């Protein structure tokens, strides 16, 4: 064997070694590539799992939001229902109250109408509409006249002038007190209440007496006296005058028993007279009065 042939064999042997070694290298490369691919696949799987987890979380959040929305809707519906119920209840209560008030008003009106229909002679406190006048007069000379003397007064009713020595007791009289006597009461600061009722007016006179007795006591009077008032019928009152009140220099006349204006008249003129004193008088309507007068 020559040298060339040996070299050729060696070269061939070396090439064979190289050729045999190639599968190992390629196998290593394939193995490395397979490892990388598997790692990538695992990474992608993890990513997909994470995405799925996020999707599940989002689904849960959406479910919770839907539940909260449903709860809020239910709460709002319940609140609206309660409010509507309360409003309906209030409306029902208001309607009931209005109905009760209307019924009470109707009942009162019916009662008043029935009272007005059944009682044509209403008491003075029914507040009738009266035609009332006030007049002031300059006081006249007021000397005493003889016992049981008669005076022709120009003024009707008189508010001053000549008068008898005796004055009437401060009380209510059933018989007419002579004017000559009660003018003397005026001089002592009294208020004399007169009435003329041919058809009778006991109820009205009772109301006048009660109103006078209810007034504050006169500080000048000594018990049992409390006031300086005389109440007497007077058939000499002008036509159309049913009721009058007289003080020194002042006269109130009316076609009905005007208690409100009577009170105002007393407030203004009671106790304003030349001889302002509270000493009781006599029952000047008794049959033996003139014989007993000094």
Structure, described:
The chain is an alpha+beta fold. It folds into two domains: 1-120; 125-292, no CATH class. Helix content is 52%, strand content 9%. The protein has five helices and five strands. Strands 1-5-4-2-3 form a five-stranded mixed sheet, with helices on both faces.
Radius of gyration: 61 Å
- How many strand elements? 5
**What is the terminal separation in angstroms?**
208 Å
Alpha-beta content class? alpha+beta
What letter string, H or E per element, gives the SSE order? HEHEHEEEHH
How is this structure best summarized?
The chain contains 5 helices and 5 strands, in the order H-E-H-E-H-E-E-E-H-H. It is an alpha+beta fold. It is elongated, with a radius of gyration of 61 Å.
Quick tags:
single chain; 5-stranded mixed sheet; 5 strands; elongated; alpha+beta; 294 residues; disordered N terminus
């Amino acid at each position: 064997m020559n040298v060339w042939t040996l070299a050729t064999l060696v070269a061939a042997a070396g090439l064979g070694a190289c050729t045999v070694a190639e599968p190992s290298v390629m196998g290593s490369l394939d193995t490395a590539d397979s490892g990388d691919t598997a790692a990538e696949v695992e990474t992608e799987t993890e990513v997909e799992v994470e995405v799925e987890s996020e999707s599940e979380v989002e689904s849960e959040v959406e479910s919770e939001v839907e539940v909260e929305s449903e709860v809020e809707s239910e709460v709002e519906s319940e609140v609206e229902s309660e409010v509507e119920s309360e409003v309906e209840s209030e409306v029902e209560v208001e309607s009931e109250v209005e109905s009760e008030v209307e019924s009470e008003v109707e009942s009162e009106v019916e009662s008043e109408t029935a009272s007005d229909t059944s009682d044509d002679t209403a008491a003075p406190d029914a507040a009738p509409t009266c035609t009332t006048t006030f007049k002031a007069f300059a006081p006249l000379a007021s000397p005493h006249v003889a016992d049981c003397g008669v005076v022709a007064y120009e003024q009707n009713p008189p508010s001053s002038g000549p008068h008898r020595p005796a004055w009437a007791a401060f009380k209510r009289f059933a018989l007419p007190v002579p004017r000559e006597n009660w003018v003397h009461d005026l001089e002592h600061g009294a208020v004399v209440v007169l009435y003329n009722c041919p058809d009778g007016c006991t109820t009205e006179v009772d109301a006048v007496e009660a109103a006078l007795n209810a007034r504050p006591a006169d500080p000048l009077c000594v018990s049992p006296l409390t006031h300086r008032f005389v109440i007497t019928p007077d058939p000499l009152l002008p036509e159309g005058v049913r009721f009058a009140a007289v003080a020194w220099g002042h006269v109130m006349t009316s076609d009905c028993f005007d208690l409100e204006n009577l009170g105002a008249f007393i407030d203004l003129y009671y106790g304003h007279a030349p001889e302002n004193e509270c000493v009781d008088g006599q029952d000047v309507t008794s049959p033996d009065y003139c014989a007993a007068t000094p």
